[in-house]
Amino acid sequence: MYNLKVVVIGAGIGGLTTGIALRQAGFEVEVYDRVRELRPAGAGISLWSNGVKVLNRLGLGEKMAQIGGQMDRMQYLTKTGELLNDIDLQPLVEEVGQRPYPVARTDLQQMLLDAYPGEVKLNHKCIGVEENAQGVTAIFENGHRATGDLLVAADGIHSMLRQYVLGEEIQPKYGTYVNWNGLVSASEDLAPKNSWAIYVGDHKRVSMMPVARDRFYFFFDVPLPKGTPVKPDYNSDLAEHFQGWAKPVQLLIERLDPSKTNRVEIHDVGPINGMVRGRVALLGDSAHATCPDLGQGGCQAMEDGLVLTQYLLTTNMGVEYALQRYEAERKERTSAVVQKARRRAEMIHGVDPDITHKWYQQLAHEDPTDVTSAISKVILAGPLH
């Protein structure tokens, strides 16, 4: 198509990846975000191979390798520290053609900001959209208006633009558990530095993953009723929730810095009925926020950006046609991931205690290659095989 102008709302992982892909395709792009300064939500993210491949396609593979952690194995352990399963990730890497990288979110966002060849306009809260046959205009609270040929709504799980696209308000759905996450110095008394260690028991979970600069990205999951009052002393709160768990779990609780630890009630969005209206396309969490139990949230946003760019580049039948093609491909893929991630969240966190108990037993007897092929199935269902 001719030289399109694209307005992107949201400068998270999805918005920035899309901005980079569109600029590399030769389109004019403006990226806006409502915040005064960009601070990513959450401390870390596991970027599986499908997300990394999108970055490879955008020429960012080498930079990603520098900020990603060296994760060679996954180890499942009981709450008291007995090994349930030790999974070599090399068969997965060979099957899908790319290693995964756990990464600190600030490192990932900074890498994407550095790679985006333009200014991200901050402190611009989008409050409305106007559309006609010629184009689409984003209206901002500060009075600014940005007009383009299409608008990408990458404005997150609490998207303002989702209601415009769907014609109804969709509230995020509680994923039944609370997650504490942060970064801590890596040391062997916590976990092997090349492994993803996951402790499970009592419908709870503790995880440590290696990221760059000799750190672990950690998280704790506890199933709690929505709106459970926050106890500001995270160390003693977690010590209570994980009383009697293995020594490395206790050491992690002692060492975490509560002022740099996030506490999040996990929610998801979808599956929804559509991702596109006219010249406006939902992308990333605004369309399909997932429970983080598959590690696919950021990866799906990256895939969205790549697929959207491909359709805009490869059709001459107009913007709306390209967006319909994008919706048809991405709705099916992302709906499946949202549903699979929710089922996994429920299985891990004791929504049906019998199912969770069976999962614990399965972990102890499962062939490691069954685990890696289940992960690779999710990865290979995406646009980059």
Automatic annotation (TrEMBL):
Required co-factor(s) are: FAD
Location of the FAD-binding domain: 4-340
Q: In which pathway does it act?
A: Purine metabolism; urate degradation
Note the InterPro entries from the entry.
Answer: FAD-bd (IPR002938), FAD-dep_Monooxygenase_BioMet (IPR050493), FAD/NAD-bd_sf (IPR036188), HpxO (IPR047712)
Report the top EC class in one word.
Answer: oxidoreductase
Q: Which UniProt keywords apply?
A: FAD, Flavoprotein, Monooxygenase, NAD, Oxidoreductase, Purine metabolism
Pfam families reported in the protein's UniProt record: FAD_binding_3
Statement: the UniProt record of this protein carries the keyword Coiled coil: no
Q: Which reaction does it catalyse?
A: urate + NADH + O2 + H(+) = 5-hydroxyisourate + NAD(+) + H2O
Protein EC: 1.14.13.113
Q: Which Gene3D superfamilies match?
A: FAD/NAD(P)-binding domain (3.50.50.60)
Protein family (similarity comment): Belongs to the FAD-dependent urate hydroxylase family.
NCBIfam families documented for this protein: urate_HpxO
Q: What is this protein called?
A: FAD-dependent urate hydroxylase
Species of origin: Gloeocapsopsis crepidinum LEGE 06123
